[in-house]
Amino acid sequence: xxxxxxxxxxxxxxxxxxxxxxxxxxxxxxxxxxxxxxxxxxxxxxxxxxxxxxxxxxxxxxxxxxxxxxxxxxxxxxxxxxxxxxxxxxxxxxxxxxxxxxxxxxxxxxxxxxxxxxxxxxxxxxxxxxxxxxxxxxxxxxxxxxxxxxxxxxxxxxxxxxxxxxxxxxxxxxxxxxxxxxxxxxxxxxxxxxxxxxxxxxxxxxxxxxxxxxxxxxxxxxxxxxxxxxxxxxxxxxxxxxxxxxxxxxxxxxxxxxxxxxxxxxxxxxxxxxxxxxxxxxxxxxxxxxxxxxxxxxxxxxxxxxxxxxxxxxxxxxxxxxxxxxxxxxxxxxxxxxxxxxxxxxxxxxxxxxxxxxxxxxxxxxxxxxxxxxxxxxxxxxxxxxxxxxxxxxxxxxxxxxxxxxxxxxxxxxxxxxxxxxxxxxxxxxxxxxxxxxxxxxxxxxxxxxxxxxxxxxxxxxxxxxxxxxxxxxxxxxxxxxxxxxxxxxxxxxxxxxxxxxxxxxxxxxxxxxxxxxxxxxxxxxxxxxxxxxxxxxxxxxxxxxxxxxxxxxxxxxxxxxxxxxxxxxxxxxxxxxxxxxxxxxxxxxxxxxxxxxxxxxxxxxxxxxxxxxxxxxxxxxxxxxxxxxxxxxxxxxxxxxxxxxxxxxxxxxxxxxxxxxxxxxxxxxxxxxxxxxxxxxxxxxxxxxxxxxxxxxxxxxxxxxxxxxxxxxxxxxxxxxxxxxxxxxxxxxxxxxxxxxxxxxxxxxxxxxxxxx
Length: 758
What we know:
Number of strands: 30
Radius of gyration: 27 Å
Pfam families: Glyco_hydro_65m, Glyco_hydro_65N
Structural class: alpha+beta
Oligomer: single chain
Keywords: Hydrolase, Signal
Mean pLDDT: 94
GO molecular function: hydrolase activity
Organism: Rhodanobacter terrae
Largest sheet: 9 strands, antiparallel
Protein name: Glycoside hydrolase family 65 protein
Shape: globular
Number of helices: 18
């Protein structure tokens, strides 16, 4: 963005509250939006997230800690390692000392998390408002202080974040505060994951006394490999005169970034001491003030961040932080609340299941926090965190994108625009392998789209190629939902065309069997990593080829006749004897116990929804359930939604509801803030993939709706889980028109779907 235009944009963002109506206070206090931690959660506290799709940070129990922070697609490219999100200097810390320890200064952020020290403790993540509020009575060696901390990452002005610390001392005296930017040390050890085999990786971890196990309460289970990347600070300084801090830096072998903070003091309060503190790991503004018993003092810290391609340098960030301080914390907060309130105009409301309502809101909150409108950035499987090293999988196209498409189409558009933007990298990959068209990576870098699969998972990068069909299907789904032919011609069609060329060149003709086959693929059941004719892959490839023919007609281009030829004769494994599909070619023994042990329910997943008769659909489901029940592996939250949706397509409300319910348990939701994990026993958190899956169970599964060329069609009868009275999709967007869609019980007790045009 050009500098002048960026300044105008931010002035408009800071002024937006002047045009805002009142925020709905009732919605902001709706228990369906509120997640609360109390003292009993301190020992098992799993951090939540504050983010706006451009920048993110984690929560922490005190509300004042220095927490890891990230910028969208800001990657570390250390030699020999895979690309990974570079942690930018943490901006959230405000430390506090009463100066009353017998040993000298004792700081709040070093105090043990004990209910005896943090009395009357309560922290609330307000999903509707996107705010974290922490309250407690802090007891420091006989001196008590009432603490309230309110933090936000602005949804209205995306470069900004802020924290307000209010202290009410129960004593007269002097206290100290430290407003810091935390300069993280380079992560050690660094592993050369671009060349280590699986065995070598295990040896390297053992040599460093590391394990692939979670450490309670909140360390990711694979933190030994999914560590954050490094940001190198090149200049850092502060000014006591205007109470600001600023720095410039860059990711390891990567992009430039900048950060600045402006500190606001209570009106009329004059520090008795004020200085800038600098060390290798900390840049801070430290101050000492005199306080009176029973008086409340509110301090605020305004932070601005930017990175190459999104904003400017530290000078401009400093100006933005100072402008936010001048406007005031309440101004920034009100604009932020208004922006979140507008987002929640599109919502899912459930009548009859308060637990499901709260979980749906938390899943929507994390999806909205980790995506941004009108960009070309994707969604990582674990959002803006180091989980899966921030890489982009089919999760972005098939799990997150459809969940956003009808409720938040501008955010969904960003995800498909990422594939358009990185099409040249995918074309180069295909060409390097002697294939036509484009071959998108299994693990893509969110900035440049390059292949980033670790060497130990090399076969996934080369063989789990259904991602290419997933990409094309998402492009077409966006066109069908938006009706935007210009977008299709300019962005969607080149991707769809190149994917079709890829499949046409990747499939081979088996003359003896009179069919096309796709050999040497990794199945969706990844334990089967070199099989012919994986059913989900072949069915998805066939749909992508047929989409290319349809898209060609829309944009007025003659399709390659070979696309239709391959699609019509591509083998889809099926047991004629038993009347159901198989997971892969008949020649492959289905004898590995991988959880779920089948991908057949995914054939009913909304974006694919493979056509079949009612009898075959029932036989597929029964066969799949038999395979699932025989497995002894732990559940994976990614596999729960396809089963629920497949059951809904059969009209089986009880089974669909039961599998939906499994997605609401604390086994896959970490307290206190409903952080979704990949499995019941690991700490691979912020798993947006499963969040998107759960939402799709409602949006498409329980409604029976599918996005087709005729619009949003009723492909299956709606279902309601037995305890539910109704649920409503609010402010659904389709081709420029808006609807409320309700599934409720009719007079005869059967579910009915009602559309109301807005």
